[in-house]
Amino acid sequence: MPARSRRSPGLRVLGRLALWLGALVLPSAVLAQEPPATVPEPQVAPEAAELVWGNRHIVTFRSALLGDSPADRVRLAELALASALARKADALPARTSAGASVRFELDGVPLFYLVAADLDSPRGESALDGHSVDVLNRLRLAIDEHREANDLGARWRAAGKALAATAVTAFILWLLWRARRLAVVHLWERLKSPASLRGGWLSGYAEAAASVGRLGMTALAWLLSAFAIEAWVSYVLHQFPFTRPWGERSTTWLLGVIEQFALAIAAAVPGLVVAVFIFLLARVAVRANAALLRRVQRGEVQLPWLDADTVVPTRRLTTVAIWLFALAMAYPYLPGAHSEAFKGVTVLAGLMLSLGASSVVGQALSGMSLMYSRSVRVGEYVRVGETEGTVTALGLFTTKIHTGLGEEVSLPNAVMFAQPIRNYSRLVPEGHFVLHTCVTIGYATPWRQVHALLLEAARRTPAVASEPAPYVVQTALSDFYVEYRLCAQSSKESPGRRIEAMNQLHAHVQDVFNENGVQIMSPHYMADPPVAQVVPPGPWSSRGDQPLTPPPSA
Length: 554
Prior knowledge:
The chain is of the alpha+beta class. Among the domains are: 49-149, no CATH class; 363-423, SH3 type barrels, CATH 2.30.30.60; 434-525, Alpha-Beta Plaits (2-Layer Sandwich). Helices cover 52% and strands 14% of the residues. It is built from 13 helices and 13 strands. The protein has helices at 9-32, 70-85, 128-149, 152-192, 194-197, 206-239, 244-298, 311-330, 340-356, 358-373, 413-418, 447-460, 498-515; strands at 49-53, 56-61, 93-98, 101-106, 109-115, 381-384, 387-394, 398-402, 408-412, 421-423, 434-442, 471-477, 481-489. The strands form 4 sheets. It has a 5-stranded antiparallel β-sheet with strand order 9-8-7-6-10. β3 and β4 form a beta hairpin. It is rod-shaped and about 140 Å long. The termini are far apart.
């Protein structure tokens, strides 16, 4: 076996001493090290507290003082005030500057301290003196009102003044509305008097003018009543110490509102002047445009792109365009144009127009298309669908047609634009119209005879012009009959309404065919009748002015 190495006793002792020293020195070195730096917690500013006495603001504490929070300082100040006022002394509060603070006391009793940290101002101590003066004035006022509130005689005097003010205000309101009623009655009597109605500009508008006057007087009465009630409320609140701060705030609010209105009106005057100037220029432009287009309509001025038929719609379009351009130019100068409320109203109005005006825009575009396409003119005789008559008005949204039967038909322009329009006046001289009628005669009747009979009926009708000469065309060869159409134009002697001229023509057609034994009944049959279906000769064929008599009995 290998021999083990042997250590000397001295070395073993030295090793043990080193271990003991390390065990003692190492913990103490660790403990001697500095602890890690801790993050300081942010200091939270104490919540401000307001000292109020008798419903009146005295001061606001925003900092702690000698360990007391702002709320604690308010409680201590209230206790000190109550203790000082309980002595029923007539002493006035005072203030004393004490270094960086101001002390307030009453009859030798300290009430509270005010420091620079209580001020909501970056000036700090430099503003402390001025702020303490304001606090002292409010404190004196609150103490005076407290003493007044505890005075029985002062309370009775305040109640008497409030009752007197109430009676006076009620009388003023009654007098105001009584005057309003008398003014409305007087205005109505003046408007209905013969002197005002005879030849005056109010003729026919008396009721409308009376309604406008009544609304204006009612609005004025309500406005004056509101001012009277506000003055009464403010006066009554001023009479009692506890409600006096409310009355002061009410008066301040009213004066502030009046001041805001006055400043707003003064600031809006330059913009209003500019807007009025823009609208005046637009009015001048509209009048000049109307004067030019009237000359074009009368033929005094010739424009290659404009004729008499399109003058009216062109004037309407240009007028609308001028006013829209003027409104766009004047919009930034209108009062409140840049406010959020005005912008919201304009957005809402645009949304409502875009949602609800689609049909209106369609009607207007159809009307403009009818006007500029010259499909229809006022005074022409047309047929649209089942409606036939004379066009009396061609508007932007509807077209009015007189049928000659005591009717006026208003057709939407979208309907007019979507249907075929038969114009009986366009291809004839001015003031005339086309007359045509259709009969169906069986194949057993010679067509030359039918032509001659129809032309004879046209010759007998005074409403049919001889030049150009009437003519007959065969428009269809149906299964059982031939369709004949008589075409003619009205004469100078024709009635103003086409339906009356057609009535004359139809009457003579029946007379001529009956006289010649030709039946007009269309032959839808299984066999020919043994006798022609015509009216036998008799007094019915008289064409004079004598009244017709029934035929003699068989």
